[in-house]
Amino acid sequence: MNSPPGQGAGIPIRIFLARLIWLCVLPLLMLSAWLAFDSVRSQRTGENEEAAHLASNFASAIDQHLEARILALNLLAVSPLLDDTSRWPELYREAQGFRESFGSHVILADVGSPMRMLFNTRKPYGEPLPLMPRPKGHAAAPAALATLKPAVGDSFMGPVAKERMNPGLEPDVTVSELAALGIAANGTIDAAERVLPLMLDTDAGTEYWLGLHNFHVITRYNRSALYAMAVHQLSQAIRTGYERP
Q1: How far is CA 34 from CA 27, 177, 235, in A?
Q2: Are 135 and 155 a contacting pair, CB within 8 Å?
Q3: Per CATH, domain 167-245 is 3.40.720.10
Q4: pLDDT under 50 in the chain at which residues?
Q5: pLDDT tens digits, residue range 196-231?
Q6: Is the CB of residue 140 less than 8 Å from the CB of residue 158?
Q7: For the chain, what are the domain ranges?
Q8: Do residues 105 and 121 make contact, with C-beta atoms less than 8 angstroms apart?
């Protein structure tokens, strides 16, 4: 049936109503989509801020721990007992107090070349001691003497402790060598890869980790295994947050 002359073709009322409904609903759908996007963005922003806050807290706690140790050692360094060799046994007892408080031994050495140990809290006072060892790479004692600032050197075999000093900072054992000792890594790591065996005490118990080269790189900024571990766990938390649907 043709439309009367002078009039356009009409549309069914069903189509007209459908279009009208879409025109009414479309702004609501667009608003809902924007609100959903804004909510996800706000959540990501909140997660990033929380991660940054956690990182700051980790770094602050570790820095405070290190600062406390440095200040305690400085008390020994400025003690008047140091200027009187007859009172070095008293200074040795104070150094033992540092060991009991912080769990680290103290070595008093002269400033000659090579440096000579004057006492070492691993040994009774007055017992003969060897010269200060010098690692192949960066040596902490000469660096501290030159800069008058705290320094940390590369690992080395301690002549008194009979173990490696500064362990847990440099990858110095291969995955294959650990495998020969019955230690297997979770995941796929090349057998020739040098790693860092770590044992960390946590609230959930003892955890065992293998640090790779990037772990060592982090410790160049702050030579603390705990600091590097905190950075690793923070990066994992951030990645999990971004991958979360």
Answers
A1: 10, 56, 29
A2: yes
A3: no
A4: 1, 3, 168
A5: 887 777 777 778 888 887 777 777 666 677 777 777
A6: no
A7: 61-165, 167-245
A8: yes
